[in-house]
Amino acid sequence: MSARTVDDLRLDDAPLALASGLLDGRTAIVSGGGSGIGKAAAWVLARLGARVAICGRNPERLEAVQSAFDARGWPILAHPCDIRDEAGIERLLDAVAARFGLPDILINNAGGQFAQGASQIAPKGWRAVIETNLTGCWLMMQAVARRWIDGGRGGVIVNVTAANGRGMPGIAHSAAARAGVENVTRTAAVEWAPHGIRINCLAPGLVDSGGLSVYPEAARAAFARANPQRATGDPWDIAQIIAFLASDTTRFLTGTTITADGGGALWGDLWTIERPVYFSDSFQKAEIHVA
Ligand SMILES: CCC/C=C/C(=O)SCCNC(=O)CCNC(=O)[C@H](O)C(C)(C)COP(=O)([O-])OP(=O)([O-])OC[C@H]1O[C@@H](n2cnc3c(N)ncnc32)[C@H](O)[C@@H]1OP(=O)([O-])[O-]
Ligand SMILES: NC(=O)C1=CN([C@@H]2O[C@H](COP(=O)(O)OP(=O)(O)OC[C@H]3O[C@@H](n4cnc5c(N)ncnc54)[C@H](OP(=O)(O)O)[C@@H]3O)[C@@H](O)[C@H]2O)C=CC1
């Protein structure tokens, strides 16, 4: 039996908002299910009764979640896959089909970016982030939807984006990609409605997952003050909303985005890179020099 971490114990004991058994008999794929929000989502879905398949690039993270699931007697498939690789996605879906049959739910959670000022982002870096967050998410959506359409049945997709309504200073590439996902979600929600496919986005604000460690210390120190709640979210908060969107509870909801950001879209000042002097409290307008 694998060691139980404090983290896993919390995932076991944190209260569920939805009725246990709600997802009995369902199969869910969670991309990026080896860490952070995706791992919490895998736990919530399993505790609600779903069989879970997780993917990501790093096999060790997936294996750790697999061991924890095995220890609890929960069905799981852990399959390494880069969501930018169409052939890899087909292999993932074949593996899910062989183990569990056609999935019912896709949680498109894998993603991320690096923080850099917009004027400095290299073309390769821009492409890496767009390929991951827009194209990768799209390839997963389309591959699963095709199998549902070919199989004559519907399903549910939840795309995890990021709260981008006011732009995202320091991660322009990711903001553009997430806005693209939210738009293609609206389009596909219409096109695929006749097939019984529902698609929604969940746009988190700052969530205290391990993922935030990639940001500069000065930026991280301000994250918890960047919304009216003056707090970061927790992966469990986000995972519960993911499960809500994946369940029949939301059967009349499609093509929309739920933002879970502590009100950050309304108030707060978020910088993922060092805050430019222009936006500091001490900045005086006279400091602007026009040539
Ligand atoms: C408000 C915040 C809200 C959001 C929070 C979260 O999402 S938390 C979740 C957070 N979790 C995550 O973000 C996890 C997932 N994120 C990732 O895996 C990476 O950030 C990825 C999306 C770039 C993909 O990775 P990959 O393996 O495909 O890419 P690669 O490593 O091979 O780089 C390709 C190119 O990108 C460029 N470049 C890359 N890094 C930097 C940098 N620091 N600096 C500058 N540039 C950088 C560079 O051009 C590089 O090419 P080079 O110069 O090397 O020839
Ligand atoms: N935490 C936050 O404040 C916020 C997070 N988000 C988004 O929520 C999602 C989950 O992030 P979070 O849990 O916080 O951070 P993590 O860094 O823990 O999660 C990102 C996950 O995505 C996987 N991943 C990244 N790139 C790929 C790829 N090309 N193919 C397959 N898997 C990939 C990673 O696994 P591996 O490295 O093994 O591939 C990892 O499991 C991400 O899309 C993130 O951008 C959005 C807004 C705020």
From TrEMBL:
The keyword Phosphoprotein applies. GO terms for biological process: fatty acid biosynthetic process. Gene3D superfamilies: NAD(P)-binding Rossmann-like Domain (3.40.50.720). It is found in: Peroxisome. Pathway: Lipid metabolism. Pfam families: adh_short_C2. InterPro entries: NAD(P)-bd_dom_sf, Peroxisomal_t2-enoyl-CoA_red, SDR_fam. It comes from the Bacteria. It is an enzyme of class 1 (oxidoreductase). Belongs to the short-chain dehydrogenases/reductases (SDR) family. Interacts with PEX5, probably required to target it into peroxisomes. This is Peroxisomal trans-2-enoyl-CoA reductase. It comes from Sphingobium jiangsuense.
